[in-house]
Specification:
With 132 residues, chain A is mostly helical. Chain A has helices spanning 24-39, 45-81, 87-95, 103-121. The relative contact order of chain B is 0.12. Chain B has helices at 9-20, 68-81, 115-120, 125-144, 161-172, 177-188, 230-235, 255-266, 272-298, 305-311, 314-329; strands at 24-31, 37-45, 50-58, 89-95, 101-107, 197-199, 208-211, 214-218, 225-227. The chains are: A mainly alpha (132), B alpha+beta (330). The A-B interface holds A 45-46, 49-50, 53-54, 56-57, 60, 87-88, 90-92, 94-95, 97, 100, 103-104, 106-107, 110-111, 113-115, 117-118, 120-122, 125-126, 128-130, 132 and B 29-33, 119-120, 175-178, 180-181, 183-184, 244-246, 305-306, 308-309, 312-316, 318-319, 322, 325-326, 329-330.
């Protein structure tokens, strides 16, 4: 068994890690798949509807854990570009009219921030028109 | 179904006895939909005939929602008398055995409310064709109801909708720069508000009962109020209420079709610029509501998973606001 190369599994190593596998993300994914593939088909009505919301919430949680580090850095860079320390500060500056002469630039930066949120919350929403 | 539940069959039988005499309730089923209330359908066997009924009750534990079902039943009765297609109210009141949550019992009408089915399934094809006309006609009837009919019902009269929405947003104390950006744009481009009529406040697919020929009933009057009538038109154009369809108005039609039909039915002149302003206002309003619901969950006012999930829909509205304002200014 010593010859088995764990990296082939495409999963992050848990060697020298305080916890055993599966990882937090893997556990959440397993629950989501169990709900979607096994429990949803066996239920109906209000229960099925709630289960779909539950499965979707778990998908959001996984995307948040995966995206957090890079999004946090990106957000800080955008705020720096806009001369704001944090989101409440940016709100105050917008309200004070600080960007009124650069409204298009503001819009572009806000879109970058919102795009990160949407990538986690609901990436399907980017499509202007969804197929029926 | 547990017969001993607070709103189980025997509780319903008790409520209906005064109206129909001895009544036997069966088939009590909870329906999906509605973040603010529970909706149940059931059959009632009375001396006269069997009836299919709907019971709605305020969601527990949310003070903000207290009394909404009872209040709505009074509004339904007024709407019915004024030619708006709505279900007939059978009974309403407050459930003393369950934190005094208010409830209403109405006749169950035929049709579908689930937007995605109405927009996609072949059986609603004919309904889709008639929907813009039917919705415009119902809205004109709603906006025509004399305000004096609502005496005794607490309805807010919103003369400055933007400031009113802004104060709701500010009270949440949860800054969202894109919302501030949208408020600033809306303020700079606000059309003149000249009129205050009765408005439905949440007129869109999901809250409309559709049968195979078109609109059968207008439901969910919980946020009816007085205000500019065009807000009801703009609200159903909000992207969230297109449910994935490419058609701009309620997922079924064009701005021009809506303007033409509504102008004909109501006698009001509506410009596309005004309609789009109200659509963007509506998008911001739905965004603020999503933010509020997310806050309700975080502050422990509800443990509803559905409400928690709606908190994450804030980003969709921010994106739509940036897209819509970008389209107009760019």
């Amino acid at each position: 068994m010593n010859n088995v190369d764990m990296s082939d599994w495409g999963l992050p190593s848990r060697i020298n890690h305080p916890y055993d596998a599966p990882s937090a993300i893997e556990l959440i994914q397993a629950v989501e798949e169990c709900i979607t593939e096994e429990i949803v088909p066996a239920s109906d009505g209000a229960t099925q509807w709630k289960l779909r919301i539950a499965a979707n919430a778990l998908k959001i949680a996984v995307r948040e854990i995966e995206g957090r580090a890079s999004h946090q850095d990106a957000l800080q860079n955008i705020l720096t570009d806009l001369g704001a320390v944090d989101m409440p500060d940016l709100s105050e500056k917008i309200k004070a009219g600080d960007y009124d002469d650069r409204f298009e630039m503001l819009q572009e930066k806000l879109l970058s921030i919102v795009a990160m949120k949407l990538e986690v919350a609901n990436p399907r929403h980017f499509k202007q028109v969804q197929d029926p | 179904m547990n017969d001993n539940a607070v709103f189980g069959a025997s509780w319903l039988e008790l409520q209906l006895e005064e109206i129909f005499g001895a009544t036997e309730v069966s088939n009590l089923i909870q329906l999906s939909g509605g973040a603010n209330r529970e909706t149940w359908s059931f059959e009632a066997i009375t001396k006269e005939k069997p009836r299919s009924l709907i019971m709605q009750i305020d969601r527990g534990g949310m003070d903000r929602l207290h009394g909404t079902c009872e209040r709505e039943s009074r509004i339904l009765q007024i709407a019915k008398l004024n030619g708006v297609p709505v279900p007939t109210v059978i009974a309403s009141g407050f459930a003393e055995n369950a934190g005094n949550r208010s409830f209403s019992i109405t006749e169950k009408m035929q049709g579908e409310t689930i937007a995605r089915k109405i927009l996609r399934d072949a059986q609603w094809q004919n309904a889709r064709k008639n929907l813009i006309h039917d919705m415009a006609k119902a809205l004109a009837a709603i906006h025509k109801i004399d305000k004096s009919h609502f005496e005794g019902i607490e309805l807010s009269d919103i003369r400055d909708p933007l400031s009113s929405l802004e104060s709701i947003y500010e009270a949440l104390d949860d800054p969202h720069p894109t919302f501030d950006y949208a408020f600033r744009w809306l303020r700079a481009n606000q059309p003149e508000i000249s009129e205050s009529t009765f408005v439905h406040g949440d007129f869109r697919l999901g809250n409309l009962l559709i049968d195979t020929s078109g609109l059968n009933a207008v439901l969910d009057w919980e946020i009816a109020q007085f205000g500019d009538p065009i807000q009801d038109l703009g609200w159903m154009c909000v992207r969230a209420w297109r449910f994935g369809s490419g058609e701009r108005v309620a997922g079924v039609g064009t701005y021009d079709e809506l303007i033409e039909n509504y102008s004909q039915e109501s006698g009001r002149d509506v410009t596309k610029t005004t309609l789009l302003w109200w659509e963007i206002f509506g998008t911001l309003r739905w965004g603020v509501i999503c933010l509020q619901m997310g806050g309700d969950f975080r502050k422990g006012r509800t443990n509803s998973l559905e409400i928690a999930a709606i908190g994450r829909r804030v980003a969709e509205n921010e994106y739509d606001l940036l897209q819509s304002i970008g389209e107009i200014t760019g």
